[in-house]
Amino acid sequence: MKQSQMLDCIVLAAGQGLRMRNSVPKQFLRLAGKPLIIHVLETLEQLNEIGTVWVTYLAGYETTYLQLFEQYGLRKPKLVPGGATRQWSVYNALQCVSSDRVVIHEAVRPFFSADLLRSMLALDAPAVVPTVPVPFTVSMGDTWMTAELNRSMLHNIQLPQVFDTKVLREAHERFYMPGDATEDSLLVFRLGKPVRFVPGLEYNIKITTPLDLALAELIYREG
C-alpha cells in the first residue's frame, strides 16, 4: 500500500520507569552514551514516511526534552502532555494526529528497524503489530495452577505498531475508562476490528529493568 502522505507518529515517553530503580526517568537513561529516547527519535528522523513525531512528556521535564531535541538536531518531534496512564497518554497524543494512519512506538524500545516499519506500512489493515514467539512454558493460576496455555498460539507483542487513525480513535473513545490498557491493538481487537500480526525482531526489546539496560548495551556492541 503506497502512502499518500507522511504519517504522524506517537512516541510514548511520559513514564517514570520505577522498575529501573533510578532517579532519572528511563527514557533519559544512556545507551552507548546517548539517551534511549534519542536512539528512537534519530531512527524516525531518517524515515521519509514519517512526518511529525508527537512525544508524550513527563510533567516537570519539558525543558529536558526540548534541550535534547535541540542538542541532537531533531526537527520532527513536538511535545504533548502525557497522561496518568499509558492509554491516556496515547489518547492525548491522538488529538494532535492529522494523518489517516498513525505509528505508535515507545521511547524505551531503541532497536526497531526502518525496514521493519516500512514492511508494516506496506500492509493495509486497521492494525499492524509485530510479534515474536513465546519461547517458554506459560500457565495460569494464582497460588495453584488453574490452566495450561499452548505457547505455539501465544504472541509476545512488540512496537512500533501501525493503525488506521479513525479506528484507533474510536477504540480509545469506546474504552476510555478505566484507562488501563497496556497496548493499543488490544483496544482495536475489543472493538471487533482485525489485528494483523507480522514477524517482529528478537532484539527489539523494551528497556524496563536494569537487566534490560545491560542486555541493550550488549546488543548495541554486537551491532
Question: Would you summarize the structure shown here?
Answer:
The protein has 223 residues and is of the alpha/beta class. It has one domain (7-222): Spore Coat Polysaccharide Biosynthesis Protein SpsA, Chain A, CATH 3.90.550.10.
Describe this structure in words.
There is one protein chain. With 223 residues, this protein is an alpha/beta fold. It has one domain (7-222): Alpha-Beta Complex (Spore Coat Polysaccharide Biosynthesis Protein SpsA, Chain A), CATH 3.90.550. The chain contains seven helices and twelve strands. The chain has helices at 36-45, 62-71, 86-94, 114-121, 165-174, 184-190, 210-222; strands at residues 7-13, 30-31, 34-35, 50-57, 77-81, 101-106, 127-133, 139-141, 145-148, 155-157, 161-164, 195-199. Helix 5 crosses helix 6. The longest helix is centred in the C-terminal third of the chain and has 13 residues, at 210-222. The radius of gyration is 17 Å and the shape is globular. It starts with 6 loop residues before the first strand and ends with a helix. The mean pLDDT is 94.
Identify the overall geometry: globular
Q: H/E element string?
A: EEEHEHEHEHEEEEEHHEH
- Rg over C-alpha atoms, rounded to the nearest angstrom: 17 Å
For this structure, the CATH topology is Spore Coat Polysaccharide Biosynthesis Protein SpsA, Chain A
**Biggest sheet overview:** 8 strands, mixed
CATH top-level class: Alpha Beta
Specify the structural class. Answer: alpha/beta
Number of helical stretches of at least 4 residues: 7
Integer count of domains: 1
Name the poorly predicted regions. Answer: none
Helix percentage range? 25-40%
Instruction: Kindly state the number of beta strands.
Output: 12
